Each structure stands twice: as structure tokens, then as C-alpha cells.
Amino acid sequence: MHTAATHAATAAPTAAGRPAARVRAHGHQSALRIVFALYLLAVCVIVFAPQPDAERFTGIVAVIARAAEAWGIPFEIAYPVLEFTANIALFVPFGLLVPLIAPLWHPWLVIASGLAVSCLIEFTQTALPSRFPTASDLLANTLGTALGVALLAVFMRLRSRARHSG
After folding, report:
1. How far is it, in rounded angstroms, from Cα 152 to Cα 142?
2. Is the pLDDT at 119 greater than 70, yes or no?
């Protein structure tokens, strides 16, 4: 619960003349941008590395698909499902981080941005000899972005309710 004293403390100017709350918010934005840049770097390594190198990161999908064979699930079925799921998971952070960095963006713009980044990835993969683009990656990446946006919306709503009820 915010009181007048809390408001005064957060509105008190810092040495730079900006309210302390704004300085904290700027610090959070900077940290989020760094996390987002590291995330994008990791995505680039995963999606643009030559296939043998990329398998160091994506090989877990094949390992799990082989393990699923022990449960009677053929590798030919398990692998595409797991790869699709991994592509969804790869873009969930995009859907979580972009709205935090650009809070004025409409959720549909965030999802469209995830699709645009995915299109750029798939287009670039056409020029890489050991990589190939797929429509299923576009779908999975866009679903991952949408899932991230939805998870953030649910979290923010629950957080708002907890603040207002306590």
C-alpha cells in the first residue's frame, strides 16, 4: 500500500535531479535490455551456427526423442514434436522480455515482432548451407512469443491483484 511518505520518498530527487523511482525504473530497463541482448545472442548462436556446431545446443532434442523410443514412441514421431516444442520454448523469452522493454507496445505488436524476427531467421537460413527454413518454425516461434506475452499478462494481473488486496 502506498502512503504519502512512500510517495514522497520515491519522488525525492536524486543527485542528478531525477526522482528515485525513475532512476530505479531506468536501471531495470537497462538490465532488461542487457538480458534481451544476451537472449538474442543465444538465439543467433542456436539458429545460425552450422548444423554440427548447433547440435551442441539442440542435440538434447534428439537425446530425448531416443529416450522416448524406450517408452514405445517412435523417434520419427517424437523428434518433430520435441523440435516444435523446443522452438516454442525458444521464443517464450521474446514474448516475456519485449513487453517489459517496450511497455507501450500492444501485445499484438509484440507477437507480430516475434513473427518478423522468425521470418528474418528463416530467410537468413536459406543462405546457410547446413540450415533450412521451415514453416513449422515460423508457427512455433510465433506461438512461443504469444505464450510469453500471455504468461507475462497473467503474472502482471496476479501481481496487481496481490498489491490491491494487501
Report:
1. 15
2. yes
